From TrEMBL:
InterPro entries: FecR, FecR_C, Ferrdict_sens_TM
Domain Protein FecR C-terminal: residue ranges: 319-379
Protein name: FecR domain-containing protein
Domain FecR protein as annotated: residue spans: 183-276
Species: Chitinophaga oryzae
Keyword annotations from UniProtKB, A to Z: Membrane, Transmembrane, Transmembrane helix
Entry keyword Plastid: no
Pfam families, A to Z: FecR, FecR_C
Transmembrane segments: 84-104
Length: 389
């Protein structure tokens, strides 16, 4: 087949796919052509869509209809990395928007192999356990709104939106420093308002230890896992976050810290204000738009520019990646869906760029992973990941 005829053939298949008239045999033909490494951009006739934006919208609507996603608007930018939120379209989506995508390195599994008898894991939700200074524990997702407890001169309240608020009502200094711990399990997230008005969002498998009332000299908390902070400014009382042996000091700012022990480093991403990251005797100052990474092995701090929306996407209800390796992507999925990632042989290689909403069930995510070449299967409490074929 000549190059001109081949292009015409696959333009026609792309249009049939978007219209929903493509046959299974034609879809298989198109996928085989694409997986063979054909990644040159194909021009679609101008009459096919008024604009690229309209074309992207039509592509996404078709993907959501085919995979059962909740409604979502995709933002597409030129890239040669694998984009797994549109990989569900392993066919027309790659070429009809007029972009050049990196070809899939492995063949996708037939749809019939996606079936599983395991219960479909639901996405995470607002849930956490609050441990008071006396050891009493409160399940926040089942607790009613209103006052939950009194700690010294501080009242702990659950707001109507589910967040926890600390209201400092004591007169004079506290004789003892009382600490609370908010623990968010895998499959959860939670929001907390500290006594100084600072707001904290905790991601899955995370915890925060903090005093129920801050002193006038310093505000210190301890984080495990991941948290997003909006700190109330106070020049007289700096705010410090400790993550293992790393300290982040601020006066008033917005930033995200990702410090899971199973990641390669502690990431601090600054959205506004200024923070200082300290590891041992080394200190680095960040300006908005920068990210500091403390290497877990050698403690070195590297600083660079970053897209801050990538670090805070979880707080806004999305998975969002930009060239992240597959194991890191799967670890995030495992935390959010409260499942264990179990590799059945070698770990798949490659990097992923893209975004999907975090409110879909695990089966929807599995469809996307499968269609982008990551072979996996859901079992009770586990996601089995197979080597690329």
């Amino acid at each position: 087949m000549s190059q001109e005829k081949e292009q015409s053939r696959y333009e026609a298949l792309a249009e049939k796919w978007l219209k929903g008239t493509i046959t299974p045999e034609e879809a298989q033909e198109y996928a085989a052509w694409y997986n063979a490494g054909q990644d040159a951009p194909v021009d679609i006739p101008a009459s096919f869509a008024a604009s690229e934006a309209e074309q992207e919208k039509r592509i996404w609507n078709k993907i959501t209809a085919r995979t059962g996603f909740p409604g979502h608007t995709a933002t597409v930018a030129p890239s040669r990395r694998r984009r797994w939120w549109v990989a569900a379209a392993v066919t027309a989506a790659i070429v009809t928007a007029g972009y050049c995508w990196h070809h899939l390195q492995t063949k996708t599994l037939p749809a019939r192999q996606l079936a599983t008898h395991a219960p479909d894991a639901a996405p995470g939700s607002d849930k956490a356990v609050l441990t008071l200074s006396n050891g009493r524990q409160i399940l926040l997702d089942s607790a009613g709104n209103g006052a939950l407890a009194q700690q010294g001169g501080v009242r702990i309240v659950k707001n109507e939106d589910g967040s926890i608020l600390y209201v400092d009502e004591h007169s004079g200094a506290l004789t003892d420093t009382l600490y609370n711990i908010m623990s968010v399990p895998k499959g959860g997230q939670y929001k907390l308002i500290l006594p100084d008005g600072s707001r904290v969002w905790l991601n899955a498998a995370s915890s925060l230890k903090y005093p129920v009332a801050f002193s006038n000299r310093e505000r210190s908390v301890e984080l495990t896992g991941e948290g997003y902070f909006e700190v109330t400014a106070s020049a007289a009382s700096p705010f410090r976050v400790t993550v293992r042996n790393t300290q982040i000091a601020v006066l008033g700012t917005s930033f995200n810290i990702m410090g899971y022990a199973d990641e390669t480093g502690i990431q601090t991403t600054l959205l506004s204000g200024a923070v200082k990251v300290k590891q041992g005797t080394t200190e680095k100052m960040l300006t908005p738009g920068q990210q500091a990474v403390v290497n877990n092995e050698n403690g070195r701090i590297s600083v660079g520019e970053t897209e801050t929306a990538l670090a805070t996407a979880w707080k806004d209800g999305q998975f969002r990646f930009s060239g992240n390796n597959i194991p890191m992507v799967l670890r995030q999925i495992g935390r959010w869906y409260n499942i264990d990632i179990v590799y059945q042989g070698s770990i798949p290689q490659g990097h992923i760029t893209g975004k999907v909403p975090r409110n879909m069930k695990l089966s929807g995510v599995i469809r996307i992973l499968e269609l982008s070449g990551i072979r996996c299967r859901q079992e009770a409490g586990r996601l089995l990941v197979f080597p690329s074929s």
